[in-house]
Specification:
413 residues; mainly alpha; Serine Threonine Protein Phosphatase 5, Tetratricopeptide repeat; two-stranded antiparallel ribbon; 2 strands; 71% helix; TPR-like_helical_dom_sf
Length: 413
C-alpha cells in the first residue's frame, strides 16, 4: 500500500471516530515522521501528529484493562517526544503540543505517575514560549493549574515567577486568585487550616476567615468539614454565593431533597438568566437522580427558557426520556414501542448540537448509544399501520400508559 493510500484510509477512519482503524493505518506516520508524501501536496505532518495523539487518547479512554490504557497513553506520549525532536525550532507547534500533552496527562492521571505535576510542567513550558497568550487562554485556567501544582509541589520560586510574569496580562479574577496562591505558598494546607481555625476560635462569625477555611477544606477534599463551614456561612449570611455553596454540598453528598430546596432558594437571588439556567439544570439533575422524571423535565425546560442557546438542558431532556424507557421496561425486553421513544431522544440531541456546537462531542457519543436501539426497518414495516420515514409520531399513552406524561411528537427515522 502506498503512503497516500494509507493516509487516505487513516484520515477517513479518523473523521468517522474509528480510532482503532485510524491507528492501524496511521502508525507509520509517527514512526517515520515524513514531512511530505508522494502524490498529496497538502499533507501536514504536524496536524496529523495531533490526529494520531487524539486517536490513541480516545482508544485509551475506551479500555477497561489498566495495562492496555497505559499502553495507549505511553504511545501517545512517545509521539509527542518524536514530534518535539522533529520540530524542535517550531515555537507555535511546540506551544500547542505542550498544552495537548498536558491535557493528555490530566485525562489519564489515574494511569500515569505524577500526572498532575507533569501536566503543569507542560503548561509551564507553553507559558515560557507565549506568556501572554497562555495567561489569557481559557480565562486563566492553565495558569491556575500551574500555580496549584507548583504550590502543592513545593516549587515556590517557580510559582512566584509565573505570577510576576503573568500579572500584566491577567484578568482581575485571575489576579484575585494570585493573592490566595501567595498565602498558600508560605503555609502548608495543614498550617493554613490550623491558623484559620485558631482565628475562628476568637471570632467564630468572621465570614472572610470562614470563606477561606471552606475553600481550603474543599481543596483538600475534606467534604464533611467543608459542608459544616458552608452551613455556618449560610446561617450567618444567606447570600447567593453561600446558598449555592450549601446547595452544591448537598448535591455532592447525594442529599437531593436539601439540594433542591437550596437551589430553589438560590433561584430567587440569581441576578442573571445564565445563573437561573445553571440553577434550573442543577435542580433538574437532582430530580433525575431521584427518578422524578416529570419534575426533572420541568426544570430542564426552565433552563432552556432562561438560556435557549445552551445545549446541556436539551441533552438533559434526552437523558430523561432515555431514563423513562428504563423505568417503563424494568426487567422486560424492549418492545418496538419502547424503542420509538429513542426517536425523541435523538431529536433533543440534535437540538443540543444545533443550538450549541460545544456539545458536539457529547452528543456524538450519546448518539452511538441511542441510535442503534431505535426501531429497525422490519419493526417499522410490521407496525400497524406500517410506519414511513419522515411521518409524525406521537410519544404518549398510545404506546404504553407509562409514556402518557411525555406527550410529545417526534418523526419516524
Amino acid at each position: 500500500m502506498s503512503e497516500i493510500q494509507a493516509y487516505s484510509i487513516f484520515y477517513e477512519n479518523y473523521k468517522n471516530d474509528s480510532f482503532e482503524e485510524a491507528i492501524k493505518f496511521g502508525r507509520w506516520m509517527w514512526q517515520g515522521m515524513p514531512e511530505t508524501i508522494e502524490g498529496y501536496s497538502r499533507f501536514d505532518l504536524k496536524r496529523n501528529i495531533g490526529r494520531l495523539v487524539t486517536s490513541y487518547n480516545e482508544m485509551a479512554q475506551k479500555q477497561e484493562d489498566p495495562s492496555l490504557k497505559e499502553a495507549y497513553v505511553d504511545t501517545a506520549l512517545l509521539i509527542f517526544d518524536r514530534a518535539f525532536e522533529k520540530f524542535s525550532d517550531d515555537k507555535d507547534a511546540k506551544y500547542d503540543w505542550y498544552i495537548k500533552r498536558g491535557r493528555l496527562l490530566q485525562t489519564h492521571s489515574d494511569n500515569v505517575d505524577n500526572a498532575s505535576m507533569r501536566a503543569a510542567e507542560n503548561y509551564y513550558k507553553a507559558f515560557q514560549l507565549k506568556p501572554e497568550e497562555l495567561t489569557k487562554r481559557s480565562k486563566g485556567y492553565y495558569i491556575q493549574r500551574i500555580l496549584n501544582e507548583f504550590s502543592s509541589g513545593g516549587k515556590k520560586d517557580e510559582a512566584l515567577a509565573v505570577m510576576k510574569k503573568a500579572e500584566p496580562h491577567a484578568s482581575q479574577e485571575l489576579l484575585n486568585s494570585f493573592s490566595n496562591v501567595r498565602e498558600e505558598l508560605f503555609d502548608s494546607p495543614e498550617e493554613q487550616i490550623e491558623f484559620l481555625e485558631s482565628e475562628l476560635e476568637s471570632s467564630p462569625e468572621d465570614e472572610e476567615a470562614l470563606t477561606k477555611l471552606r475553600d481550603v477544606y474543599q481543596e483538600q477534599e475534606m467534604a464533611a468539614e467543608a459542608r459544616e463551614v458552608s452551613q455556618k456561612l449560610y446561617e450567618l449570611n444567606p447570600n447567593f454565593e453561600n446558598i449555592m455553596a450549601v446547595a452544591e454540598a448537598a448535591k455532592n453528598n447525594a442529599n437531593y431533597d436539601s439540594a433542591i430546596q437550596y437551589f430553589k432558594e438560590a433561584m430567587d437571588k440569581a441576578s442573571t438568566d445564565k445563573e437561573k439556567a445553571d440553577i434550573a439544570l442543577n435542580i433538574s439533575e437532582a430530580y433525575l437522580n431521584q427518578d422524578q422524571l416529570q419534575s426533572a423535565r420541568k426544570f430542564a425546560r426552565q433552563a432552556i427558557n432562561n438560556n435557549n442557546s445552551w445545549g446541556d438542558p436539551y441533552i438533559q431532556i434526552a437523558d430523561i426520556y432515555a431514563r423513562a424507557v428504563n423505568q417503563c421496561t424494568g426487567d422486560r425486553k424492549l418492545t418496538p414501542e419502547d424503542k420509538a421513544v429513542y426517536w425523541l431522544v435523538l431529536d433533543y440531541l440534535d437540538k443540543a448540537k444545533q443550538v450549541d456546537p460545544n456539545t458536539s462531542n457529547e452528543v456524538d457519543r450519546k448518539y452511538q448509544s441511542y441510535k442503534p436501539v431505535t426501531p429497525s426497518k422490519s419493526e417499522k414495516f410490521f407496525w400497524k399501520p406500517p410506519l414511513e420515514e419522515g411521518e409524525s409520531f406521537e410519544i404518549n399513552s398510545s404506546l404504553m400508559e407509562c409514556y402518557v406524561w411525555i406527550n410529545e411528537t417526534t418523526t419516524v427515522r
